[in-house]
Design a protein that fits this description.
The structure is a homodimer of 267-residue chains. Chain A is α+β, with helices and mostly antiparallel strands and 267 residues long. In chain A, helix 2 packs parallel to helix 3.
Chain lengths: 267, 267
């Protein structure tokens, strides 16, 4: 199968919800017309064979799903709505391409994400890099740096089990946008990501309750294992279910009082 | 060197020209506030060891330069102004990272490109994927699909020699925006890219002159070799230097009258 045929196959099936996307797959660039009063948020994530998944433990469909889910999780963490994605995929074998995009398109359709472009290449191992763009009312994006002393820290669900098909918490983006002062998604372990949020905000915290733990996981897994794709939030308001209080923000040397032990790609 | 230290090193040195970029490196997402009346254009390109370059033929600095130059070339092809980039880099060895970004930042500074975010990971071979975002007045992006019968086809410079440090033709983006009906950059060989532009526009052409040839290259190289990073343009107006006429757009079966023989990643 030639590159042109593969791209034609992708372009025919790629979800396109419009919503500002004037030019999608097939030109040198995608073209997006922003609506008045909106800001755009952008995230990019690698999904690499042997690093983020292994074959044949994952099917190509599952890799496509996960690659997009990683980016959607970051969009949720800003309190934003996902709008479009650019998908770069390098594979040893063209047979990988169709089922990969099958899994990815299914998730994109579920959340109204247009596939606006990308790049295809060959590589010894599967490498995917996805940029997801989302929209948020101007000035309202929820950053890591907004936590203030006196606010409560929450996590959005049970932690500790590494998930093959993580569910991006876009269902919670609205409540995050309305109520959270700071937010990030938990992908490198709660202990490391909590440290990052507190440092970005220039504060520390007291732990008031253990994080909720997935069935089959330990409390240590919940603190340090990573790949949870739940949200970590600071809020001055009482957060509704499924948010679960774990601490209170206090003044002090910026960072977590617990030693961060999560994932470091170069550690 | 730990991931946090590497990211701190990058964040400290990354060019930041502001211009709408509200949040850059360090949060879950970058945040961009569009200006009134502007549209955004997006392109993404892999630069992969063994595919787009080899080591040690390229230094890490040269890889960083080339990875960004590929994206800037696409921005020029839309008649757009480059605004910001997201850089994903996977490497076998952390020593590659600093000189890579040194080369990339130098080119970014030259064209006023803010580095807004990215991802870092490990991989057996160097894989880089860069998204570049540019801006263009709403409705004015120059597409591949705009060529009409009677218009003249031009290339923006001499072709045929594979370039280690390609110069993205952002110097020509303004004249492309004002005068071109259709444009694309020549990266997979003129014969293949000409075929793509003509198909996208639903027209064909007659060749009226040979493309200008780089010193040391043959006319066959100029037609088929690829990696030229010059622009292919259709215009109803007379294009100024350095544009060089190669043909005239005519009605007919869409595509090039010459057999396309350029680069196909899955051919």
């Amino acid at each position: 199968m030639r590159e042109r045929e593969i791209i034609a196959w992708i372009a025919k099936r790629a979800p396109n919800f419009g919503q500002g996307l004037r030019v999608g797959i097939g030109d040198d660039c995608a073209v997006y017309r922003p609506a008045a009063g909106e800001e755009l948020v952008f995230t990019t994530d690698f999904t690499i064979e042997g690093r983020h998944f292994t074959l044949p433990d994952y099917t190509p469909r599952e890799v496509g799903y996960k690659a997009l889910a990683r980016g959607l999780s970051d969009i949720a963490a800003m309190g934003a709505t996902a709008r479009f994605a650019l998908v770069s995929l390098a594979v040893p074998d063209a047979d990988f391409v169709k089922p990969f995009f099958g899994g990815l398109f299914g998730l994109a359709r579920k959340y109204g994400v247009t596939i606006a472009g990308g790049d295809l290449s060959r590589s010894d191992k599967v490498h995917c890099d996805i940029v997801v763009a989302g929209v948020v009312p101007a000035g309202k994006a929820v950053l890591r740096s907004g936590a203030k002393a006196g606010e409560i820290l929450y996590v959005s669900g049970r932690l500790g089990t590494w998930k093959k098909r993580p569910k991006p918490r876009l269902d919670l983006a609205g409540v995050v946008l309305r109520h959270a002062s700071a937010c990030m998604d938990i992908t490198d372990g709660l202990s490391m990501d909590l440290d990052r949020l507190l440092r970005a905000s220039g504060v520390t915290c007291e732990i008031t309750a253990p994080p909720p733990v997935m069935r089959g996981a330990t409390i240590d897994d919940a603190w340090h294992r990573g790949e949870d794709y739940e949200l970590l939030v600071a809020s001055a308001k009482r957060m509704p279910k499924p948010f679960h209080e774990i601490g209170i923000v206090v003044e002090g040397r910026p960072g977590s009082p617990l030693p961060p032990k999560g994932w470091d790609h170069f550690g």
